[in-house]
């Protein structure tokens, strides 16, 4: 019997009564390692009702106790980091180090959630009028929901529910159906840390279950991370049902290389940032813009990338793992073909790469194109595979114009020895996360993850102070306490507080 992934509802792991399941496969072999249920309508209703019920008591739990829960949870995640990473390796195929990093970046958010008392401080002004004070409190919204992608099965769920729950909300998580077991392990540890029943629910499935969350009147806010088309759908449908929505979507991240940059640093940074994690990172560098004479380095960059080999997670020499599914692999191969047909020069072609002993794995070797132009499909579309497009620009101004014309705005970086060039780039670029001599500038959780343009729909971003704003409502109180020793004057006919 294949393992059946359970639901986590009202504090218990339970098998679904669904008659529909989706196979979870090992992407290096196609072996079916589990079956994930499509949660039934009754189970969805029960999960939402129990989150709503749990909210009544959870919101009354003192903020310092909520913080302590996060401290215990962070501790347990650290203790079980390797175990969680192993699940990620099996269901997603990441290398062990990469999988541990996935968990670690999530732990950092839980540590940030443990700072919730100071993050939830309101504002006060004494004497807004004579003997009248105004102060604000931040209060939780109610039941919030999260819908997460396959590529960071630990980190991205941990971007969401610890912050939401630390704020006093309860949460329903619908992880990716492609690697759902990581979240179940994390939920188990959250319960072990002392989370009361109903505070976190995990439901499984795909569009049908997401649609329930998007439309249900008891869900107050939706956090989504995934592809562009789905992100737009989530944002439109969620807001149409009068919910607060933050939707993090796809990307096409550019690295600009100035001729005064250090060549070896550029090569080292580009190799890891472009093909690392099989290119399945929303902050991966998929376009390298070589400015002026730095174009001479393209053959050396290609030679360095050509040396990188994918493999299974049990192979310590593997640089990255397989693509998540045969469909993802087929899509990437077809985009590589299109690149060739549309006239780009394929300097390194990973289409036919094989990993000995794993003939059925979703392998794509590192691939590099030069002479790419903005009209080409490989430039315009998010490939989400180990494929780097190189583009030439005559000047920094031309590079900035190119990046600013992209509909995406998740991340970008510039490699240069010039402070003036870096300053100009950080100021003029229309992208939400900028690295200066740092290829993948993902902010630590005391900042927020701030994609722009087509990479993000909403206004308050993930983790950090912005997540607290997203998961809370501000209540502003204006108060006067009468001194009984002073005689009461007549009725006040004006709305003026003086
Ligand atoms: P996806 O959009 O296919 O799936 C994401 C989630 O949405 C899953 O839980 C899935 O079940 C659900 N879903 C899928 N189709 C749906 C539909 N029609 N209606 C409602 N829900 C649906 O994304 P993916 O392939 O799992 O993840 C890769 C994508 O995520 C890439 O585009 C990547 O750039 C993006 N991503 C973005 C960020 C970011 O911070 N901007 C971070 C990680 C990944």
UniProtKB/TrEMBL annotation:
Output one GO BP term. L-valine catabolic process
Q: InterPro entries attached here? A: Ald_DH/histidinol_DH (IPR016161), Ald_DH_C (IPR016163), Ald_DH_CS_CYS (IPR016160), Ald_DH_N (IPR016162), Aldehyde_DH_dom (IPR015590), MeMal-semiAld_DH (IPR010061)
Cross-referenced Pfam families? Aldedh
Instruction: Identify the PROSITE patterns for this entry.
Output: ALDEHYDE_DEHYDR_CYS
Q: Name one GO molecular function term.
A: methylmalonate-semialdehyde dehydrogenase (acylating, NAD) activity
Which residue range or ranges hold the Aldehyde dehydrogenase domain?
A: 13-477
Listed A to Z, the keywords are: NAD, Oxidoreductase
The keyword NAD appears for this protein: yes
Which top class of enzyme applies to this chain? Answer: oxidoreductase
**EC?**
1.2.1.27
Family named by the database record: Belongs to the aldehyde dehydrogenase family.
The molecule here is called methylmalonate-semialdehyde dehydrogenase (CoA acylating)
Q: Which organism is it from?
A: Rheinheimera mesophila
Provide the gene name from the record: mmsA
């Amino acid at each position: 019997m294949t393992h059946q992934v359970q639901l986590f509802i009202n504090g218990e792991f339970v098998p679904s009564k669904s008659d529909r399941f989706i196979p979870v496969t090992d992407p290096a072999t196609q072996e079916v390692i589990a079956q994930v249920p499509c949660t039934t309508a009754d189970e969805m209703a029960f999960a939402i009702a129990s989150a709503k019920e749990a909210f009544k008591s959870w919101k009354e739990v003192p903020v310092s106790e909520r913080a302590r829960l996060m401290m215990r949870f962070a501790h347990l995640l650290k203790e079980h980091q390797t175990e969680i990473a192993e699940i990620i390796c099996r269901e997603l195929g990441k290398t062990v180090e990469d999988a541990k990093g996935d968990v670690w970046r999530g732990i950092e958010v839980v540590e940030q959630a443990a700072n919730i008392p100071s993050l939830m401080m309101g504002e006060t002004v004494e004497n807004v009028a004579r003997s009248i004070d105004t102060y604000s409190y931040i209060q939780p919204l109610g039941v919030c929901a999260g819908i997460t992608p396959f590529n960071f099965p630990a980190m991205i769920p941990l971007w969401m529910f610890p912050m939401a729950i630390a704020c006093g909300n309860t949460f329903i998580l619908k992880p990716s159906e492609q690697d759902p077991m990581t979240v179940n392990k994390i939920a188990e540890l959250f319960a072990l840390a002392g989370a009361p029943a109903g505070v976190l629910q995990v439901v499984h499935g795909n569009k049908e279950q997401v649609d329930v969350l998007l439309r249900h009147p008891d869900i107050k806010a939706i956090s989504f991370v995934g592809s562009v088309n789905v992100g737009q759908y989530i944002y439109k449908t969620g807001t149409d049902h009068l919910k607060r929505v933050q939707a993090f979507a796809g990307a096409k991240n550019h690295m600009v290389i100035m001729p005064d940059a250090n060549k070896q640093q550029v090569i080292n940074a580009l190799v890891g940032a472009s093909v690392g994690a099989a290119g399945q990172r929303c902050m991966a560098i998929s376009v390298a813009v070589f400015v002026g004479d730095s174009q001479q380095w393209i053959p050396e960059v290609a030679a360095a990338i050509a040396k990188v080999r994918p493999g299974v997670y049990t192979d310590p020499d593997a640089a990255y793992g397989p693509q998540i599914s045969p469909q993802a692999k087929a899509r990437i191969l077809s985009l590589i073909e299109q690149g060739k047909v549309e006239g780009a020069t394929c300097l390194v072609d990973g289409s036919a790469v094989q990993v000995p002993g794993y003939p059925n794995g979703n392998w794509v070797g590192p691939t590099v194109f030069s002479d790419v132009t903005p009209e080409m499909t490989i430039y315009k579309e998010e490939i989400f595979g180990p494929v780097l497009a190189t583009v030439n620009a005559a000047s920094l101004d031309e590079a900035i114009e190119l990046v600013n014309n992209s509909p995406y705005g998740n991340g970008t970086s510039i490699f240069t020895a010039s402070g003036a060039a870096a300053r100009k780039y950080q100021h003029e670029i229309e992208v939400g996360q900028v690295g200066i001599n740092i290829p993948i500038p993902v902010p630590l959780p005391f900042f927020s993850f701030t994609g722009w343009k087509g990479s993000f729909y909403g206004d308050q971003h993930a983790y950090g102070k912005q997540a607290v704003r997203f998961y809370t409502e501000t209540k502003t109180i204006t108060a006067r306490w009468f001194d009984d020793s002073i005689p009461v004057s007549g009725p006040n006919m004006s709305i003026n507080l003086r």
